[in-house]
């Protein structure tokens, strides 16, 4: 489970994350939405121990990321591409597995899961954007984590890849795991997520099920722009 409570982060005297609170529960896919610069990435970086907060807490299964004994076995993250371009996909995943005490057999398993078995020996620098995303997901899955935190996971995927990702995340959550998904593709989020958290200018403007957030609107896209457009935070977004 992910529990973010009263999280605050300031940069240059401005609150880029302002009293943010939400949860992402096991068995559900939670969509995390917001315009560019709204505070999504800052929130995720704090959650994953890549940045510090000025106030509040961001916990995974009740503890901060930095206090997890076996991080990759608890939470898998796709936030920034981290593979060296001269390494092969297999070498990259093998290094991650060894450094985290994960059986080497998992490397072949996750490569198969994400459809990269045939490209296992290719250098990462030669990968397309979509292949890089699949490799990032493979790395996130190495430790068979209870929690997945994914930032724009379908970026660069073709239509079939997007469809595959949707099914995969739905099945992953259905097995009792927690999935937090950040994306700018409203239609895809509407089909994938159970719950939504919408952030704008550092503050939560809406949270609830997809049906609750989109109530009174013809689509998630319409609801999103009503909540984050001019005057959106003053319109009572259900936060």
TrEMBL record:
PROSITE patterns of this UniProt entry? ABC_TRANSPORTER_2 (PS50893)
Q: Which Pfam families match?
A: ABC_tran (PF00005)
Q: Which SMART domains match?
A: AAA (SM00382)
What are the protein's GO molecular function terms?
A: ATP binding; ATP hydrolysis activity
Which keywords, in A-to-Z order, does the entry hold?
ATP-binding, Nucleotide-binding, Transport
From what superkingdom does this record's organism come? Bacteria
Q: Quick check: keyword Flavoprotein in the entry? A: no
Q: Where is the ABC transporter domain?
A: 2-226
Family, similarity comment: Belongs to the ABC transporter superfamily.
This protein is called ABC transporter
């Amino acid at each position: 489970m992910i529990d973010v409570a009263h999280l605050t982060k300031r940069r240059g005297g401005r609150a880029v994350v302002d009293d943010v609170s939400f949860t992402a529960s096991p068995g559900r896919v939670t969509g995390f939405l917001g315009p560019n610069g709204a505070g999504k990435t800052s929130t995720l970086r704090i959650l994953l121990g890549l940045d510090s907060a000025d106030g509040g807490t961001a916990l995974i299964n009740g503890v901060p990321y930095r206090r997890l004994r076996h991080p990759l076995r608890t939470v898998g993250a796709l936030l920034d591409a981290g593979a060296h371009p001269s390494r092969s996909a297999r070498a990259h995943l093998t290094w991650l597995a060894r450094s985290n005490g994960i059986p080497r057999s998992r490397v072949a398993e996750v490569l198969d899961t994400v459809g990269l078995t045939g490209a296992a020996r290719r250098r990462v620098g030669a990968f397309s954007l979509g292949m890089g995303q699949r490799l990032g997901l493979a790395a996130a899955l190495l430790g068979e984590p209870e929690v997945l935190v994914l930032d724009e996971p379908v970026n660069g995927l073709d239509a079939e890849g997007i469809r595959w990702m949707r099914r995969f995340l739905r099945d992953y959550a259905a097995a009792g795991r927690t999935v937090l998904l950040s994306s700018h593709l409203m239609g895809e989020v509407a089909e994938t997520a159970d719950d939504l958290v919408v952030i704008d200018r550092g503050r939560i403007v809406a949270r609830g099920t997809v049906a609750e957030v989109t109530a009174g609107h013809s689509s998630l896209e319409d609801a999103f722009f009503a909540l984050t457009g001019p005057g959106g935070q003053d319109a009572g977004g259900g936060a």
